Amino acid sequence: MATPINSPRTVDCPPPPLGCAATAGEPCFSHGGTRERHNFHGARTAAWQAARLAAVPAAKLIADAAAARKIRHGKHAAELLAENGYTAEADRVRQAVSEQHGHMSAKQAAALLLDDVEGGESR
User: What is the pTM of this model?
Assistant: First the structure.
């Protein structure tokens, strides 16, 4: 079975105690490697999310500002993007905020940009 592009399985799982050290493409294991997990270790999911964000600088800018609690709303994310020269991305976020009648968080704005780049595979 092919590994989906939009999955934590595309990155290596960190070594114990945070993960199981499964290589990219392999499932995570539990119980000393005797049982296949139905989900992923949290550290593997975090590594996958970091890799996704690194591939989209505009989304990383928003995610970093949201994590530092500098911005909270999609409107603020659009302003931050525009200030840093990401005008097309800022327009895309402004459009989405308008379509959702102002109901968009900064994290949702970053996810929107990731989905746009990844072809809208995840939702």
Answer: 0.73
